[in-house]
Amino acid sequence: MSSYDITIIGSGPGGYVAAIRCAQLGMKTAIIEKYDTLGGTCLNVGCIPSKALLDSSEHYHNATHTFDTHGIEVKDVKANIKQMIQRKNDVVEQTTKGIQFLMDKNKIDVHHGLGSFVDKTTIKITDKDGKESTITSKNTIIATGSKPNYFEGMEPDKKRIITSTEALEMKEIPKKMLVIGGGVIGLELGSVFGRLGTQIDVVEFAPRIIPTMDGTMSKELTKVLKKEGFKFHLEHRVQNVENTGKGVKLTALNKKGEEVTMEADYCLVAVGRKPYTAGLGLENAGVNVNDRGQVEVNDHLQTNVPNIYAIGDVVRGAMLAHKAEEEGVFVAELLAGQKPHLNYNLIPGVVYTWPEVASVGKTEEELKEEGKAIKVGSFPIKALGRARASMDIMGTVKIIADQETDEVLGVHMICARAADLIMEAVTAMEYRASAEDMARICHPHPTYSEGVKEAALAAFENRPLHV
Ligand code: FAD
Ligand code: NAD
């Protein structure tokens, strides 16, 4: 029986990064993954494949919408969904193979099979042929991630009523798709098919889309997506969705309590994800879960069983790949006797629509609710030369600072390349910069980053230069 200093169950971004850092720190490390490929949700059916399809569909959209204005004439442009999915699969394959390479390079033992606690130091691994083996481990990190959530009446049948996993494997471009949930998955995958010509109708329970992000972002993104042809049915409570054979029929109650029915080819259920612990045998190790199904952890990501830790989507907090990764590094360094640091307030969030939405720190709504005295500076992207040159003029940058101290408390932006631009704000906030600090830094011209400088000037002393 093999014995390890540390075993990680689950090879998503939380698990594989934890494994690498543990190995770097000299621990004898094992990782257990129930699927044949490493990389978890993120690499196989999440971040990477969705971004591959977002990029392909964006190229198609540009070819059919903006090329002529740029002076590029193309004829008979066609979207080939089969090829798009094939390219996406190739990207996934290369990326997951890369993780196997990293495991080998760091001398991490990879065990394929379902990991299940026998007791708090013994783990049974059952491979796909049912063959069992057992290992022992001084410490264990649970990194088993999450699965798509759904509510009564909208159970996915994976044929017409689908989750993100099936949406990434579509064999046709639907004429019409209903999307339940106007959150990140609904809007990203809605964008993929919307750009390819599918009519997208979003049915959202809340009064606005991306309801946890800053209100201005939600308003701006609604405008952009409506222009692209999205229809939004807000404050609608879904009652039932059924597969009619050739399509789907959805019934919902609108905010007046009236019954509304909608029909389409497919219905994508995107109402959040739930922590995944099935088959893990937590009860055998005595590990507690809370009423939301999350593995309960303290500030050190340690469960109630001292040698067992948990990270990523299976614990509380944002369900994001980079949050899972940071938690993996945090636990590895903690076990090595170091004093790691993780600032949960500074985990950026991105929605990969076009333009992208990116955010860090508190929203204006949260700060107002806390009763904080704030000042807000905004800058419209269309005022930038770079934006006009590339024809990406939609969007705005918004910086919120403390009224008294000028410290930046939140940065929210919707614009081209916001996903990369947000890092300037994360870095500034990590060092507790003021709006003046951000405004006085020299930004290259012409770039979208000038929008950040201008919004900082607007927040500092209400004196942007270019509006
Ligand atoms: P996971 O990635 O879910 O990995 C868990 C792994 O554990 C899986 O491989 C699973 O098979 C394995 N496992 C579970 N139980 C066992 C067991 N008992 N034994 C062995 N193995 C087990 N996040 C972002 O930050 N950016 C994005 O752009 C983004 N896009 C997304 C798009 C989509 C469509 C989806 C669905 C998610 C997206 N996410 C994105 C979220 C991101 O994928 C997750 O936050 C991230 O994967 C969580 O990492 P994790 O390591 O906690 O778990
Ligand atoms: P989400 O929490 O982002 O959005 C779910 C949406 O569904 C919300 O707007 C919510 O109000 C709505 N909703 C909930 N119940 C509903 C109901 N009964 N009827 C109608 N609407 C309802 O969740 P998601 O989009 O499913 O994504 C799951 C997780 O994956 C998220 O936590 C997200 O962080 C992560 N993810 C991240 C990215 C990214 O970082 N770009 C991309 C995809 C997914």
Strand content: 25-35%
CATH superfamily of the largest domain: FAD/NAD(P)-binding domain
CATH class of the largest domain: Alpha Beta
Q: Supply the helix-strand structural class.
A: alpha/beta
For the record, the CATH architecture of the largest domain stands as 3-Layer(bba) Sandwich
Biggest sheet character? 7 strands, mixed
Number of strands: 22
Q: What is the CATH fold-level name of the largest domain?
A: FAD/NAD(P)-binding domain
Query: Approximately how much helix is present in the residues?
Result: 25-40%
Mean pLDDT: 98
Give the overall shape, derived from the CA principal axes: globular
Uncertain parts? none
Number of domains: 3
Bound ions, cofactors and other small molecules, one mention each: flavin-adenine dinucleotide, nicotinamide-adenine-dinucleotide
Describe the structure.
- The longest helix is centred in the N-terminal third of the chain and has 25 residues, at 81-105.
- The strands form five sheets. Strands 1, 2, 3, 4, 5, 6 and 17 form a seven-stranded mixed sheet that branches. A five-stranded parallel sheet has the order 8-15-9-10-11.
- 46% of the residues are buried.
- The mean pLDDT is 98.
- The chain is built from 15 helices and 22 strands.
- A hairpin with a 4-residue loop joins strand 12 (237-243) and strand 13.
- By secondary structure, it is an alpha/beta fold.
- The structure holds flavin-adenine dinucleotide and nicotinamide-adenine-dinucleotide.
